[in-house]
Structure prediction request, 646 residues.
Amino acid sequence: MFWYQWITLGSLGICLINSSIHLLRLVRLGKPTDFSSPAGKVSASVKYSFTGAMNPLKKESAYLHLPTYVAGIIYHLGTFLSIALFFLIWAGVNLPDILIFPVAPFLLISFACGMGILIKRVVKKGLRDLSAPDDYLSNLLVTFFQLMTGIVLLLGQLIPVYFILSGLLLLYFPFGKLKHAIYFFAARYHLGFFYGWRGIWPQKRIERDGG
Amino acid sequence: MKELNKEQITKGLEVFQNLADSKLVTHLNSCVHCGLCAESCIYYLATKDNRLTPARKVDLVASIYRRYFTFTGKFWPGFVNARQLNKETADEMVDLLFGACTMCGRCTMHCSIGVDIAFLVRVGRTMLSNMGMVPVTLQSTVNAAVETGNNMSIPEEEFIATLKWMEEELIDEVNDPNAKIPMNETGKKILYTLNPREPKFFPLSISAMAKIFFAAGESWTLSTKMYDVTNYAYFSGNLDEARLIAHRLWNEMGNLKAQTLVLAECGHGSRAFRWEAPNYLQEQFPFEVKTSVECIADYIREGKIRLDPEKIKDVVTLHDPCNLVRSGGIIHEQRYILDQFIANFVEMTPNGTDNYCCGGGGGQLAMSEYNDRRMKIAEIKAVQIQKTGAKIVVTPCHNCVDQLSQINVFFKLGLKIKTLAEIVADALILENEPG
Ligand code: SF4
Ligand code: SF4
Prediction:
């Protein structure tokens, strides 16, 4: 194992410990309690919260912002793919060419999506005013992680840079907004609980359409 | 005003500790600053002011949390925009969380992550309440409820006189000298509540509901001491006062030995009592609680009341009160009721859980200092109504009636605004109908 792999391994350990602190705190705080009498089914609603309620046709944050939404989806897919590839690259597994050729260009596209999202954040005043250095750094780390994954796959070069960048990303993950990867699931759960308890989700269609 | 004192800061920050459950911790840590919620909020839609987006409101509360309760916020506040709780921050909180949010929850449903934005706004309001920074106008409404038992400070004699007057109206309407508005009777099936706006400004809505109870042959009563369904402390964020107000209604159920508490047409009152009060009080209700909307729908289903489909000819639309619908789950009952007798019904777009707030929620009607902003955002609702071509707007909420009435005048819409009970009472088929 090379020195830079050791560094990354150490970063992964620190990342896991700090991420576990977030996770364990949520677990320790426990499930929500509600003393009102329920009007619906929480389990069905939590399921809906992760499925039907995420339908882009149901969310203005998706259908009113289609280019950003699509870029965001590709960007997140690129992130998940890069994380999976990280373990393969770290273990020294070589991907067959038949996989490299769709995967690496996809990562370049997801890199471009990440850059697009970053540029939007810089250019749009409303978004710029909302942003902290954390938002820019988080984006840059993840976006370049994807680019470097693509480069390593395609060219097999800059491997130390790739591992150092991965290490930085892992180290930073639990401290900035990237930790939403943990809290996202809890947020969807709580939303599902809230709307399910009150009988609002899963949504039933309003039958009449007037006229 | 001078800087915040130490006690205010401690009390403000205590909220993060006292209320720290997994829901609060989750939502404080979830926003990714994507800004995609802006267009879901009437404040941003109507003003295009970037300061008024839901994301800015979330971030204001979360930034204080980060400053005092996270590693990065404590050591590199500038890096994660972690803000100190000082006068400047608190003033901004008052303006954004009280003055630019109706806690309608529309943004929550559309947030890309699922951050409960309205919940965080309320947490921010609780901080301000702990710091003694609730706008005086809203606080005086809460004080009136705490001190007099109803938020309009209506003396009991005046209330009884109004009920007697409405009883005479009822007798004329139903053509039956035995018709009555029962007061403080024990052992009845239903204890009915009112929004104090009814005895003060819209007494005919009391006789409308009394007419429905009469037609259904219901066993019911009103309390002349504790009838106020509202709980503005829910909006001011003061949990102690919210608890006190909720407890009185609970006690009155015990005093009058009623079986079911029926909540008058009031979105926030219904939400505050049906859903929130058991949680302030940390106890389950030993009695049934339902809204008057559900009650009327049940009467129709059970054949206890009949409605004349020929009575209302005008085009009717429905405004969904946010607290009743998006946060209360009463979505289909009002439509079921209107379906029985309204021939020309047109839905607003969007509607149901996706409706736009009328602009009067979250205590906005009580906070006159934000009147200009309130009427500015009302434009969204005015346009929505105009597009339906309706002549009558029905809404099961007295607060919404008030705001919609102001919208009607301000935007010269020429509408009739009615509660659900009023339009149902208009179409009731009675055995003894006066000739
Ligand atoms: S709760 Fe309603 S008014 Fe408040 S920020 Fe969200 S959409 Fe806007
Ligand atoms: S949509 Fe949700 S995650 Fe995005 S800025 Fe708004 S509150 Fe934050």
Notes: The longest strand of chain B covers residues 260-263. Chain B touches chain A through 68 residues (CB under 8 Å). Chain B is about 50% helix and 5% strand.
